[in-house]
Amino acid sequence: MYGYSGKVLHVDLTSRKTWGESKPEEWYKIYIGGVSMASRLCWENIEVGCDPLSPGNSICIANGLFAGTPVPVGGKYGIASKSPLTGFIGDSMSSSWLTIALKRARWDGIVVHGASDDWVNVLIDDDRVEFRDASHVLGLGTYETEEAIREEMGDDQVRSATIGPAGEKLVRFANVTNDGRQAGRTGHGAVWGSKKLKALSVRGTNGVSVADSEALLKLAYDIVQAAQGPHTQKYRILGTVANVLNLNRMGLLPTRNFQQGVFEHAELISGEYLHEHYKVKTITCAQCPIACEQMSRAKDGPYAGAMTGIEYESLFGVSSNCGVSDLQAAIKTIEICDHGGMDAMSTGVTISWAMETFERGIFAKEDFKCAKYPEGFEPYFGDAEAVVTLAEMIREREGIGDLLAQGTKRASAQVDEERGTETYQWAMHIKGLECPGYDARGLKTFALGLAVVTRGACHNRTAAYDPDVKGDVDRFSIDETRGELAKSTEEYAAVYDTLPLCKFIRRCFTGKADREGAWPAIAKLINATTGWDFDYDDVDLIGERAHTIKKAFNIREGWTRADDHLPYRWQHDPMKEGASAGHVVSEEELEYMKDLYYEAKGWTKDGLIPKEKLIALGMDAVAEEIGV
Amino acid sequence: MGKNVVVELAGLARVRAGREVVSILVEDGATWRDVIAALARASPALVGEAIAEDRRDLFGSYVLNVGGRHTIHDLDEEASLEEDDRLALLDAEIC
To answer: What is the pTM of this model?
Structure first.
């Protein structure tokens, strides 16, 4: 088989046994790689109904089909497990050198079972697996752990995915980090921490075989050329932080825990301002000609020297959404998250929930006691030092940080139960995952897309903002087209997440970001890599299959239609100012759109999947278990 | 006759143009393509970045938006604008 080794490595941390599992070519044709294959491995290897932080959960990693090949932006992998935030599938992506090392070690995927008694670094050295003591790197940050392991091994070709203090302490939105990239959102770091897995290191020394290297080189060359042209310029020069002013203009920039969509200091946290004042360089993932990561450094003041890569999603959460206009404080907070190994979006949204809860008089100054402020502090919106301190407290689970480390949904539920309050009304999550940086009250197709995402409130798993923002539909109203739009955009995104290819390449095939341009080109890449005979329809099916296996996992874990919800605020509190003022997504609108979406997917009115649908997708065994 | 309107710039369009806003005069009966042409005349640096080389279309994922609320979908439509209206040249590919 070209492009794949045909085998998955299993590592049991409880018994310290390892074994390889061969997979047939037909299995690869259905699940391909990335988030789809990782989710399928979850389906096969996670105990149904398990506590996500128990040994019954498994860590499932699936390499990218194009990792280690000349295909640009193909150096990516998928990682999935049962999420400790949502209780459903938690699928993420990361990229760069680790995935190439794994490819060269000739493993298409890794499944880590059980839990270790002692902190461990699992070293995969081609065919050999070694359980190495990790006690000496405990407490180190993510980047520091990676560097320490590399030095310890005396080989800079050893690449490691690591967790930081947040993962060790089971912060439910802890990340897994490798090569400066974060597999974020759904709490993989906490799953690793629950297994006492501090790091997973890989050294691969083999070549990567493809079916037609000459054709692949030619195809890759053309895409690389296009990827250095005008269609990716915005990512190279400003990065995704360019979104700040666009979204603010449309009244969609989450501000003060989504109470507003317009931030009066948006200019001060904009990509343009960052570019001019704090950006020091751009860096890139391995195998990527775009280079979008805007490395930025605080120059002066209390956070001078803090430096990390700034993305829009991490930025909005710790700045406008906390009312903070100090970009240097935002850089510091994101640095705390990146080094501590926790999701900056969830961190920011959880902190903003705490700030609103304080401003409403439910939390008091003494609730915020910590070593740094023994008498407590008052986290009003706009207090940058409070945000920095709360991020540190979450990372260490210190004081109220222990509550916030559970994520917005659980923290809110606990406070409401203990104090008889209704803080759920401003707990901004879907399925337990904190909301991304777009106020969906003014993006109604996107609201549907977010409500039905299998991993919770994630902008990356649905591209349903596209028709709203581009004006293809009226973003303030609904109609019968929205179900099909939500289906179409989520499956479009799932193709990229499964190969995986970075979505920033999407205009580099024909200049347009659509299926018609990309799918034929992607089919050629797949065929030159594998020797298969994929066409447009086969590529299109990749997305539907990827989404279906994730949905199947959720159904098996007890998903019901009620789990496809929106935050209370988006359904009941219209914003009072800005271009999106006056709108909510009512219960009736959401339920109507869900009907349309389930119908477009070919599912039942309850959102369950008919057996024949699963069989048609080649998922016969899945059909037996959850098909209706 | 005509209407004076302001076009707000953001993102790379602002970096390229070196300014935050551009003022243009939109003739009565003008289409949105005429608005784009007027914008290209007022700020030639936008051509090739946000405005297509023919100066009648937008480039890539850029859109024209009125007041932050309404995104123009059909550039051949007449541009119904009031004096001092604010347009925004936005990059609609937000992820």
So the answer is: 0.97
